[in-house]
Amino acid sequence: MAESTEVERPLSPHLQIYRPQMTSISSILTRITGNALIVAAFLIVWWLLAAATSESYFATADAVLTSWFGDLVMTLSLWAVWYHYLAGLRHLYFDAGKGLEIETAERLGWACIIGSVVLTVITLFLV
Amino acid sequence: MRYLTARKRAEGKGAAGTGTEHFWYMKMSGVGLALIIPVFLVTFGRAIGGTREEVLATFAHPAMAILTGLVIFFGLRHFAGGAQTMIEDYTHGSTRRALVIFTTILSYGLIATGLFALAKIAL
Known about the structure:
The complex is a heterodimer of chains A (about 130) and B (about 120). With about 130 residues, chain A is an all-alpha fold. Chain A has helices at about 20-55, 55-65, 70-95, 100-125.
């Protein structure tokens, strides 16, 4: 990675200029949900390690994961997985060169948001 | 030294020198995860909240151990790839390199820990 010296360049209009739109919001939510899932991954791996180790270690990890705070993190993570899942499918569709008309893209954004909430509720009923 | 022109060596590889590898890995791991994540969400959701004996029995089942192993490995590699893209979008220079290294280490560290726990439970 060669880095040249810093040059003052004009910046294109950025986040603070643009009005929030479905296309931009649904895109940034994909990034936020994907990266935030590291918290759930960390907790799950810790919980598995605790289960594999000893009764007392498991009691500690399980108390954290099944506390109200753990429930909150896990439920939000469940929504995050489903949102990221649907947004990922939308990306595959976009990559095939389809669904890129503004109206369609916006409708797909709503589909991701509403669909992720519906799938979260369904999953909560199944478990 | 192969008898290739400089152009031929560079073609299709882009500025990173690795072409579209990263992009393609994200697609492949994403599709793979899409196939197994729904099953994992339900089975894991059912396992959580049980006693230690119940949890151990759940993850000791071969299908569940394999499924969880795949989710941990590809989930965290997919995470590392996506997080790297985010880091490269917002940071530069040494900060960027340090964060990418940290993310990669974190990802492999969690994978190793998760697989160790699974092996201990299932074997």
